[in-house]
Prior knowledge:
Helices cover 0% and strands 41% of the residues. It contains no helices and 17 strands. The chain is rod-shaped.
Amino acid sequence: ITGPLDYEDVKYYEVTVEGKDGGGLSAHTKVHIGVIDVNDNAPSLTLLPIVNPVPEDSVPSTVVAVINVRDRDSGVNGEVTCKLNGDLPFKLEASSESTYKLVIENSLDREEVSAYNITITATDRGSPALSSRADLVLEVSDVNDNAPVFEEAAYSAYVPENNAAGEPVLRVSARDADAGANGRVSYALAGGGADAAFVSVRAETGELYAQRSFDYERCREFAVEVRARDGGTPARSA
């Protein structure tokens, strides 16, 4: 051998050898040399995202990425298996010897996990085995699956009579676990009736203000209902 051999480049050599004696007579023979593969190539992975970000209401079996695997070695040295690292709501499904699908296995919830760091490892069957990995950050996009929730089930306020119109009464507050417009809460008085004329509510903040001066001798208490509504489509309210 006068130089490096690479099975993946040249698998077979044929050389002609000449034998010649001192009298000028010669003979020829062919030498056939086969190169034996060794496991000197790690698998290569190509990861192609199909959906990213993926909506949190995506159903199980939804395909989010395709993985193509290749190993330049031959035989068992080129046989590759893929696995998903960690406890994730996804799984790998083999489409062929060289292609896998990354699919959703369990339901997603953006409010619990908004992104997943996914690592896929490909390992060949050589001895010793060689492996490589590919990483994917999969974002989970929000859908409007949460209604606003008030911090208290009921609010009480005490206001002195003879107050000035426009004075603050109290502030109600609701939180929505969704993101963006889905989690943006606005407030309004719900229903009608005479009591609704006593106060107004600021849509952006939930602050209630007196609409008139109160008279204890005429009205000792009243009740109104405030509705919190998010900006999703369709909107949710409480």
